[in-house]
Amino acid sequence: MPRPYLNREETDNLLKVGCCSGELDNLATMYRKFGFTVEAKKLKTAGTMSGNAVVSRLEMLDPQQLIAFNRRLNHSKVTVESTDNRRMKSPSDEAITLSIDDYRDVVESALIGACRGCSGKPDCSLRNIFLRTDIPAVDEYEGCPYRWSDE
Questions:
Q1: Where are the domains of the chain?
Q2: Fewest CB within 10 angstroms: 39, 105, 122, 124, which?
Q3: What is the average pLDDT score of the chain?
Q4: Helix or strand or coil: residue 108?
């Protein structure tokens, strides 16, 4: 017999699945926009199926429990954080510390000076640094995601 209430662990798990279900739908929309239709369909299906599982369980709840769950859902979000803190550390002994603003200025200057009009050469050291330090792509180009033009 299904319980008309949720324990703490079940509530947390349903919140995670519910939040992820919405994010899968958003990701499917983005993938479809960029032409990844097969992946978009799979993401949409995963979002729908996981959302249906949450709704199915929520339909069994007592009305007061449902109100409490919805209140928690409105104040919840799922985040992803790296457990690997090596991302910004340099393997060399000559590492320096920059503020995030200074680092962004350096990246912007590099993009303007070196990446403007670049042909996307495969052995680019800047691209490797940008990828390693999670700098977002400038645009959707073939080859290097950081090359750009003034067009």
A1: 8-74, 93-151
A2: 122
A3: 80
A4: helix
